[in-house]
Amino acid sequence: MATKPYVRVAVGVMVQPTGAVLLGSRPADKPWAHWWELPGGKIEPSESVHDALVRELHEEIAIQATEIRPWVRYIHHYPRSTVELHFCLVTKWEGTPSPQENQQLAWYDPFAPTPLTIGPILPATFPVLKWLTLPNRYLISHIGSPSGLQPWLAQLEQALENGVKLVQFREPEWEQHSPQSIDLLDALEQTMALCQRYQARCLLNSVHGLDWLHYTDGLHLRSQDAQRLVAQQIAAPVRADQLVAMSTHSAADMQLAQQLNTDFVVLGHVLPTPSHPDQAALGWNTFTQLATLAGRPVYAIGGQNPTTLAIAQQHGAHGIAGIRQLV
Questions:
Q1: CA dist., res. 273 & res. 285, Å (int)
Q2: How far is CA 186 from the centre of its chain?
Q3: Of 14, 21, 29, 28, residue with least CA distance to 62
Q4: 254 to each of 16, 198, 210, 297, how far by Cα in Å?
Q5: Any idea what the Cα angle at residue 65 is, between residues 59 and 67, rounded to 5°?
């Protein structure tokens, strides 16, 4: 059987300050004619991803991209080809996008409550529209015990007021030392109520099992729990409207995340942190290498704070995750 062609493509995820992303229809003389996609094109053998994207955006929509950063490397298997898509976020450009190949262009808001009405969307484009709804900060709880609940709720509300939109409920210390799980459930319910007030999403860490999953907006898997699900050939038990995330530390973890079709992963620890004093940090170079294997947005964890967000994003991170210094 003949091997399918393998194509490398640079893709521009052009995002306006409002959050709207540019989509375009494929020309009539190309495969998947009139289907809608993100702008971009093939990477020539002598080109970098950056240079290919700058060239393609100029040729396709007549703009000069001036601010580009790597985001997600994603491999999609079409019936007749395999495409390695290098999605890059383009946040600044010169000129106004205008069609140069008889295609149509449209700006789409990923947060819009109504579905797309412009036409069929290429399959590899759908995940991007969901990824764009993920915020760039991911706050992790650290209540510890019943006495820590009120300080946590105060910190959480301050973080939510400061724009945090994604939270993880993770309380292994409380789970281990307090037999009164009803108190911990109350903490979860109060955390969820606060998140809902600010229209933020809250995920349940798998250290707590799955009985409380229906209270939340999704599941965050520890790597050992992800291994168990894959070994038992069980999908993550979430509803269609819930998110699935996973903690990762290695290339093997990235494979698990792909098998479970997670929405995003958290990778670390990147920098030295008090919570892992005896474990060597990955460093930014290793973080970048592992992030390219994820095939989905990656949050950097370990030593992260608002001043490291831009650095993390320059190394391919979607955003940062943390417990103490996130806001």
A1: 17
A2: 29
A3: 14
A4: 30, 32, 22, 11
A5: 160
